[in-house]
Amino acid sequence: MTTRPDPVQPATEDALALVRQLLSLGHAALAWEDPDTGTPGISRIAFARDPQAGMLTLVSGLAPHFRALRDRPDCALMLGEVGDKGDPLTHPRLMVRARASFVAPDDPDRPNLRARWLERNPKATLYIDLPDFAFVRLTPVSALLNGGFARAFHVAPEDL
């Protein structure tokens, strides 16, 4: 039996530039596993690539993914936008496998995270300090960039 070569290539500089663009979108789709049933769930989240904290989101305790991430921290993200024209599958998207970890309310980094989050999301002032909200770090495990037809790249976690 012959083995086919991996069609997914190592990330090039152009691919990494596209990764940085996708990471700056400000939102993502988050896939998680329900801790009671084991079934998958998906949520749209506010998202940031913080210079000190890495990939980050702010989650309400009322959201189903709050408990899911706390109980089962393995998750996945998809970042990308569908353009106005063409097949949605031809538009770039970044898929990231990650592990979630909650930032404790008394974590010394939290005030700086809060300040930088509010710079990007000023409307979050309304809810960021409510007791059920928590920052969640999303530490990448692996990533795949689909840059369009025949343009797939492995992205190392350290490149995110």
Number of strands: 9
Please state the overall shape, judged from the principal axes of the Cα atoms. Answer: globular
Largest sheet: 9 strands, mixed
The sequence of SSEs as H and E is EHEEEEHEEHEE
Radius of gyration over C-alpha positions, nearest whole angstrom: 17 Å
* Fraction in helix: 10-25%
For the record, give the distance between the C-alpha atoms at the N and C termini, rounded to a whole number. 36 Å
CATH architecture assignment: Roll
β-strand percent reads: 35-45%
Q: At the third CATH level, what is the topology name?
A: Pnp Oxidase, Chain A
Describe the structure in your own words.
The protein has about 160 residues and is α+β, with helices and mostly antiparallel strands. The chain has a single domain (about 10-85, about 90-160), classed as Pnp Oxidase, Chain A. Helices cover about 20% and strands about 40% of the residues. The protein is built from three helices and nine strands; from the N terminus they run E-H-E-E-E-E-H-E-E-H-E-E. The chain has helices spanning about 15-25, 65-70, 110-120; strands at about 10, 25-35, 40-45, 50, 55-60, 75-80, 95-100, 135-145, 150-155. Strands 1, 2, 3, 4, 5, 6, 7, 8 and 9 form a nine-stranded mixed beta sheet that branches. The protein is globular and about 55 Å long. The N and C termini lie far apart (about 35 Å). The model has no long low-confidence stretch (mean pLDDT about 95).
